[in-house]
Amino acid sequence: MIKLKRVVIAGTIRSDVGLPKGIELLLQGNKAIDAVEETIKIVEDNLDDWTVGTGGLANLLGEVELDASMMDGTTLKAGAVAGVRKHKNPISIARKVLELTPHVLLVGEFADLFADVIGFPQSELLTENAKAIYNDFLKKKKIETYPYDNEKTMKLKERYFKSFKKMVENNDLMSWYEKYAKEKHGTVNVIGRDIRGNICSGVSTSGLSFKFPGRAGDSPLIGAGNYADSRYGAATCVGVGEIAIRLSLARIAVYELSKGKSVEEAAICAIKMIKDLEPKAGTLSILVMDKEGNVASAANFRDYQFWIADSLDPIPRKKECIFVDLKEKEDIGVGYHR
């Protein structure tokens, strides 16, 4: 007889719109992979979020490119896609790569072709709102008001535009891009544990807004931005993807769990690895869950949170990330994380 485990689901700050559905599925006895996928799909479909799925901000050519990955911690199978341009839920395509193919990662037009073949409908990813932000940004003019705008959308646009405009005006193109690439990131990460103790982790993003076309960060790379092993736990990353790639950061955190470290210790150890890189490499946070469902998050910037819900308290609640100061008497900064 299988002993039922405590169910838990946790996600980064953008996951709050989807977590109620995720914990509902887990409490009903569904698999962790189902809860993680459905949670992330809701975030991908949230038009108020301009860093994930439909409505994500474009690359420098004005095209939206989506990346995602999933990993099943029990089988160690993983699926990922990068550079998806024609389908709105890359997390679901990534799951199909995991389940239907012998591969881990499909990229670009062939990721879209795979989605076509297995029956996913095509969708327009660039919304009018995101297109307007892109056009306004390129022309370096003030934010325009469009017929579909309201007070909420205007506040969001002003926040994005002011930051982008300031960086462009104060730097030449390449120095601006280098600085921008270290500060402007957004991703949704979700980790779930089901009643059987199986753990699954998922990541989805539209990547670095106004990025070089074809750029893929850590989100679709297993071991970098996403890793799960039900024997020990799982970890996912948000921030400068190149940091997580260079350090294989998610895998390092799970390795620390395998050595008996707590979730807090594993998260802090991972963030401290950034010290091995050049000064001001950028900002990054990591979300860690152990095999018992304990969760913690750490970051090298202040004032960042994550969400968690479980069978003891199914209403998603916000918790603070641990700030890891990598330089004595000097803050790393707040990055650009909602």
UniProtKB/TrEMBL annotation:
Pfam families: Asparaginase_2 (PF01112). The record marks 186-187 as: Cleavage. The active site is at residue 187. It catalyses: L-asparagine + H2O = L-aspartate + NH4(+). GO terms for cellular component: cytoplasm. SUPFAM superfamilies: N-terminal nucleophile aminohydrolases (Ntn hydrolases). GO terms for molecular function: asparaginase activity. It comes from the Archaea. It is an enzyme of class 3 (hydrolase). Its EC number is 3.5.1.1. This is Plant-type L-asparaginase. It comes from Candidatus Heimdallarchaeum endolithica.
